From TrEMBL, chains A, B:
<keyword id="KW-0234">DNA repair</keyword>
<dbReference type="InterPro" id="IPR034137">
    <property type="entry name" value="TOPRIM_RecR"/>
</dbReference>
<dbReference type="InterPro" id="IPR023627">
    <property type="entry name" value="Rcmb_RecR"/>
</dbReference>
<protein>
    <recommendedName>
        <fullName>Recombination protein RecR</fullName>
    </recommendedName>
</protein>
<dbReference type="Pfam" id="PF13662">
    <property type="entry name" value="Toprim_4"/>
</dbReference>
<keyword id="KW-0862">Zinc</keyword>
<feature type="domain" description="Toprim">
    <location>
        <begin position="80"/>
        <end position="175"/>
    </location>
</feature>
<keyword id="KW-0227">DNA damage</keyword>
<dbReference type="InterPro" id="IPR000093">
    <property type="entry name" value="DNA_Rcmb_RecR"/>
</dbReference>
<dbReference type="GO" id="GO:0008270">
    <property type="term" value="F:zinc ion binding"/>
</dbReference>
<keyword id="KW-0863">Zinc-finger</keyword>
<comment type="function">
    <text>May play a role in DNA repair. It seems to be involved in an RecBC-independent recombinational process of DNA repair. It may act with RecF and RecO.</text>
</comment>
<dbReference type="InterPro" id="IPR006171">
    <property type="entry name" value="TOPRIM_dom"/>
</dbReference>
<dbReference type="InterPro" id="IPR015967">
    <property type="entry name" value="Rcmb_RecR_Znf"/>
</dbReference>
<dbReference type="Pfam" id="PF21176">
    <property type="entry name" value="RecR_HhH"/>
</dbReference>
<keyword id="KW-0233">DNA recombination</keyword>
<dbReference type="GO" id="GO:0006281">
    <property type="term" value="P:DNA repair"/>
</dbReference>
Length: 198, 198
């Protein structure tokens, strides 16, 4: 591809990242090589730092640098509300909208009969345990508007019903087949404000 | 954006690379964090290695790991032909086609009155010096079909004319697999003018 093994190896690694391909990886690597002191060394250091410190919050599954993440430890966020999302990217999307003031729970995927993913494969038992531990009064299901996402929402709603917890979901503004991480802040904000009891 | 300063810094760096944006940077970083041992540490090491070893070939401007690149030192490539390109990415594209067997010369851009880029700002004096040093008989201009690219091609052709070197350029026309309906007028016009008997 290029003329050196090391550069080819770097391009191959970059090309495998989601959202990149061989062409954008080549462009990114060439751009970095041209400004290597300014870009490559800091990026390498930053990757090393994040690789060494990033970890999943044991409570909610968010990614942070401590055993329990900043959102879970913040007393300001302890308002009895938990927003359930599929992925950390969705949690970040919710946070960018700046509207939700409670805490989160990252499932780590959705139930899927096809892929043999049951409640135990997700962070669902931990979600149930948090209901009593944190005096949760409302769970907001912010799952993707996909079949698996909605199946998962219904399953969780059923489990929570027996515990006397109010369950709502993002209803307005989420397009059919849409994924949270693709939505603009205003849409997420509108969907949160218009949430409805399931 | 995320919940930690280090992760935000990493996302910001990735987002500035050509071809990426904030969203693809977030996705790439989350993906890497999930597989950090497998992806982040090797990528960090690879960046460090390339940052430490990558350099421009003093002869042709290609990027490699030695003072003079593998193509310039290869005796197999010393056939009296030099292919002139704007950028290292173009050199790599030519190499992927596997057809050209000579050596290269990377200009590092194009002449531009607007940006005050004259021959001295590019690798044009070095190109002229190579004519005698390497017994060059043909220079193939593989510059982009832009106004600046073609201005640069004409300038170089003029300079080489006085040296008795044959100057050619890549044929313009319909790309293989290309559909006329998707091509711009200039390409169709060039392809028509350069039409050949079947
Ligand atoms: Zn947490
Ligand atoms: Zn070279």
């Amino acid at each position: 591809m290029s003329s050196t093994k090391d550069i080819d190896a770097l391009i191959a690694m970059m090309a495998k990242l989601p959202g990149l391909g061989p062409r954008s990886a080549r462009r990114a690597v060439l751009h970095m090589i041209k400004k290597r002191a300014l870009l490559m060394t800091p990026l390498s250091d930053s990757l090393q730092k994040v690789a060494a410190t990033a970890r999943e919050c044991v409570t909610c599954g968010n990614i942070g640098t401590s055993e329990v993440c900043d959102i879970c430890t913040s007393e300001k966020r302890a308002n009895g509300e938990i927003c359930v999302v599929e992925d950390v990217a969705d949690l970040w999307a919710m946070e960018r909208s700046g509207v939700f003031k409670g805490r989160y729970h990252v499932l780590g995927g959705t139930l899927s009969a096809l892929d043999a993913i049951g409640p135990e494969e997700l962070r669902i038992p931990k979600l149930m345990a948090r209901m009593a531990d944190e005096n949760i009064t409302e769970v907001i299901l912010a799952l993707n508007a996909t079949i698996d996402g909605q199946t998962t929402a219904h399953y969780i709603a059923g489990e929570l019903e027996t515990r006397g917890v109010k369950v709502t979901s993002l209803a307005q503004g989420v397009p059919i087949g849409g994924e949270l991480d693709y939505l603009d802040d205003g849409t997420i904000s509108a969907a949160l404000k218009a949430r409805k009891a399931l």
